Amino acid sequence: MADADMSVLNEVFDVIMDRKNNPVEGSYVCSLLEHRKGINKVLEKVGEEAAETILAVKDNDKKEIIYETSDLLFHLLVMLAATGVSLEDISEEMKRRRH
């Protein structure tokens, strides 16, 4: 995947980080990151979206695979933001594994 293709993930992650640092009432991201719910709500969504992605792949439904994988990636980005892990951290680990 070319760097230009990754820009949307960076943009979405930046919005998630902005919501984390500057909560907006009514924001879905903010509702996931609320302190009273803790990380559990985020992890529940990651698990739910992972299961839905698996089922889409099992059904060999390309449109659903794309849709559910997008949901999964979004919720993984929220999880990373919640735990203080950056996309750069992930990128560095992926680069390390290539060598």
Word description of this protein:
With 99 residues, the chain is an all-alpha fold. The protein has one domain: Helix Hairpins, CATH 1.10.287.1080. Helices cover 81% and strands 0% of the residues. The longest helix is centred in the C-terminal third of the chain and has 22 residues. The two termini are 18 Å apart.
In which range does the helix fraction lie? over 70%
Number of strands: 0
Low-confidence stretches: none
Shape: globular
CATH class: Mainly Alpha
What CATH calls the topology is: Helix Hairpins
Question: How many separate helices?
Answer: 5
Give the DSSP E fraction (strand runs of 2 or more residues).
Answer: under 5%
Query: Which series of helices and strands comes N to C?
Result: HHHHH
Structural class: mainly alpha
Report on the biggest sheet.
Answer: none
- Within CATH, the superfamily carries the name MazG-like
Alpha carbon gyration radius:
15 Å
The N- to C-terminal Cα distance equals 18 Å
Q: Mind telling me which CATH architecture this is?
A: Orthogonal Bundle
| Mean pLDDT over the residues | 92
Q: In the residues, how many domains can be counted?
A: 1
Family: Belongs to the PRA-PH family.
Catalytic activity: 1-(5-phospho-beta-D-ribosyl)-ATP + H2O = 1-(5-phospho-beta-D-ribosyl)-5'-AMP + diphosphate + H(+)
Protein name: Phosphoribosyl-ATP pyrophosphatase
Organism: Methanococcoides vulcani
